[in-house]
Design goal:
The protein is of the alpha/beta class. The chain is built from 23 helices and eight strands. The chain is 56% helix and 8% strand.
Length: 527
């Protein structure tokens, strides 16, 4: 017996570029086999929501936030219509996008778990993601297919695998031999995948038309359907055959009767979890098909038919060699050179039109990345002086003073109430105690001048100004969720000799504070 093996196509993967992209510029792939066959077009938010619900993205995000993002798992992208499409690594990219804004996509309890992990581990949610850039989608397919057939990454369901092959045949327009060459598969396997997919697709559309319910191929045990039509009596009952050259579906009986039979069997597979046990050995198969033949809803006197059914329609076949040399254009990007040696981009400008503040920022911007402690101390100083300057320029000192004094009086009254309860109990005092006397004696009733501590100013800006000056919900949430932790970390850098600062602390501080600085600067420009 001669073993037939597919041709092996050599691809020089070392020639593919790598680049670090911000997560916001990366687009999750609607053509990903996990989500490609949902029956509707999804936007980026809907794709992320689908992956969270169906592909355990929260669980992976939790693991990443606890253990770190492993190196060697860089996504593969290509550029299509000026968009950076994640071909491989959609779950990992989705996890990192989720970690940027947990509260947007998760219940509070789960969101808080991720936020706590982010804070405890200084996880860099705004990190750039290194990606390999495939010349085109086609040349990435061998890697994607190979990875998800094994156990290195989350394995596809069998239906996902078949859909991936069908997509190359019907959507990409490749011939069988070219698919074999790309995926290192035999033509027999590829044709079997297409047969199963074509019959599933036909049944899926009938079920959708009949019930309005879309059956996801990844949630359906397509091997049950395969075992059914590979049993000769069952295939003859269905009234189907397949084109030998490409697995195309051929209906051999009246089409209406075919649809009735296929829909009946398909619904049984969907509704019965025990179908694989009912249709198991040869004896079981004979019994099952005989029951179908005895069912009075079917018409066994219909005429024969030889109609070819193309699940996706005929497409123009492409030449593999021509497709291989096509390269999706990538916009020219500035070489990183020494820019990666700084936390704040050298070409980023922030102006408050105050000489000291602007000089402080220039010094901060030019601090090398390894100057961990200098950066932490200087950015805290810059934050404190920016807030003081903003409050002064916006004439907010009186309002801040009023809020603080009222809070101080309220806190004083609470303490005095506790004290009076203690005194009455301890010394059996029955008369009322005038709180005003205590307030005066303990000097809780007098107003204090504007207090310029960092905490006081930051609390006031966060509680009374942010919603007025930041209109983007994501930026607002990022600041309100993390700014207190950033401030506390910077305080420890200044006041605690044992507190350790590293690059992640500083990057997180800058990524959280930059939108605040920018909003404050812009708002002052309006004066």
């Amino acid at each position: 017996m001669k073993l037939i093996t597919p041709n092996i196509m050599y691809i020089d993967y070392t020639s593919w570029e790598t680049f670090d992209y911000t997560l916001s510029t990366l687009h999750l792939d609607l053509n990903n086999p996990r989500i490609n066959y949902q029956g509707k077009s999804l936007n980026q938010t809907q794709i992320l929501e689908y992956l969270i619900e169906n592909e355990k993205v929260y669980e992976l995000a939790k693991k990443i936030s606890e253990e770190g993002y492993f190196i060697g798992e860089e996504p593969i992208i290509c550029i299509e219509n000026d968009k950076k499409i994640v071909l491989e690594g959609n779950r990992r990219a989705a996890c990192l996008k989720l970690l940027q804004d947990p509260k947007k996509f998760l219940p509070t309890s789960k969101a808080n778990i991720l936020i706590r992990n982010i804070v405890d581990n200084n996880f860099p949610v705004d990190r750039k993601l290194r990606c390999h850039i495939a010349p085109n989608r086609l040349l990435a397919n061998p890697i994607i297919y190979s990875r998800h057939r094994g156990d290195a990454l989350k394995r596809w369901q069998t239906g996902n695998q078949y859909a991936f092959v069908a997509n190359m045949f019907y959507n990409d327009g490749l011939v069988i031999n070219d698919i074999c060459e790309l995926l290192y598969e035999t033509s027999g396997n590829i044709k079997n995948y297409l047969k199963a997919y074509n019959l599933f697709f036909e049944a899926q559309q009938l079920h959708l038309r009949d019930t309005g319910e879309f059956i996801d191929i990844s949630k359906f045990d397509i091997t049950n359907l395969e075992r059914f039509y590979k049993f000769d009596d069952a295939r003859i009952f269905l009234g189907v055959d397949f084109k030998p050259e490409d697995g195309g579906l051929i209906i051999t009986i009246d089409k209406d009767e075919f649809e009735k039979r296929l829909l009946f069997v398909f619904n049984e597979m969907v509704q019965s979890k025990g179908f694989s046990r009912e249709f198991n050995n040869e004896e079981d198969k004979v019994i099952y098909v005989n029951k179908l033949k005895e069912n009075t809803i079917f018409d066994f006197y219909v005429s024969d038919n030889n109609e070819n059914v193309e699940s996706h329609g005929v497409v123009e076949r492409k030449n593999l060699e021509e497709e291989k040399i096509k390269i999706n254009p990538r916009k020219k990007v500035r070489k990183k050179s020494d820019l990666s040696n700084f936390i704040i981009p050298r070409d980023y400008y922030l102006v408050f039109e105050n000489e000291k503040l602007d000089l402080l920022f220039e010094e901060l911007k030019f601090l090398p990345i390894e100057r961990y402690y200098s950066f932490a101390i200087l950015i805290r100083t810059y934050l404190e002086q920016v807030l003081f300057y903003y409050i002064d320029k916006r004439n907010l000192g009186e309002k801040l003073n009023e809020k603080n004094n009222q809070k101080r009086k309220n806190d004083g009254l609470a303490k005095i109430k506790t004290l009076t309860v203690f005194l009455k109990s301890r010394y059996s005092i029955t008369e009322d105690i005038d709180s005003a006397d205590f307030m005066r004696i303990l000097r809780f009733d007098g107003d204090k001048e504007f207090a310029s501590s960092l905490k006081t100013m930051l609390d006031y800006i966060k509680n009374h100004e942010l919603r007025e000056i930041i209109s983007e919900p994501a930026k607002l949430r990022n600041i309100t969720d993390y700014i207190d932790n950033v401030k506390n970390g910077l305080d420890l850098a200044v006041h605690n000799l044992n507190y350790t600062i590293d690059i992640n602390v500083n990057r997180r501080a800058w990524n959280t504070l930059e939108p605040l600085f920018n909003a404050l600067s812009n708002n002052l420009m309006d004066i």
